ABC transporter permease (Chlorogloeopsis fritschii PCC 6912), 278 residues
Amino acid sequence: MMPAILVLGTFVVLPIIWAVFLSLHKVQLLGGIKYEFIGLRNFTRLVEDERVWIALKNTAEYVAIVVPTQTVLALVLAVTLNSGIRGKNLWRILYFLPTVTSSAVLTLIFMWIYNTNGLLNDVLAFLGLPTYNWLGDPAVALKGIMIMNIWSTAPFYMVIYLAALQDIPQFLYEAAELDGANDWQKFIHITIPILKPVTFFVVAMGIIGTFQLFDQSYIFSNGTGGPNNATLTVVLLIYQAVFRNLQMGYGAAIAFLLAVVIITITLIQRRLFGGEKV
């Protein structure tokens, strides 16, 4: 067990201990590194910082929309591919391509699509629908990131659902057919209950991943979280505190806030889904 213990200790336990230390200190980086103990002042400042609440609101809205949507879409895609359609392997590869593509590359592609003269607005105009300044309008900037991430992450969870679907015993469906169940009834009463542990895993991973949104928001806003803080997320705020303002202690305090939020929501979800049975 020693190799695993060394890895966990080096890359998990020690960083957590160091983050606790930093959150209780004011760190001076210029002119020599100095640590000044300030107790819980970083956490007090965190509560009073308006941008922290804006970042939490944006992140919560992002999680609340992206996680359910990508979960449902992943399940629909998996059920479709598992239904015996022609070219199943080809469709699976095509669906999965966005997942293995660099996040930065995908973001730059979507920035081109979202440009005021880009592909998306051209399509909307062709259909007679209103166009938007996807990159500059605070009302739609975050939604543009949501669309991109739903499209790029749903295929990953689709593969997980597909593997689980192929592991369901076929005799259960055959028995249901003998009892007169239609496809919808089989899906609701057999597929969904059996996939409950997998759904717990998919939702849990989705929540953890979406709460850590950073790179797309950074690239979209050039690191500012704009327009008007519309794409400011908690992790981007941590980045700004540590690497732009050189406030390592304050950044560590925000990171602990994020960790508490993620752990709390995961525990609630575990109780709702019965995750202890996974």
Notes: Residues 55 and 234 are 5 Å apart (CA to CA). The first helix runs from residue 2 to 23.
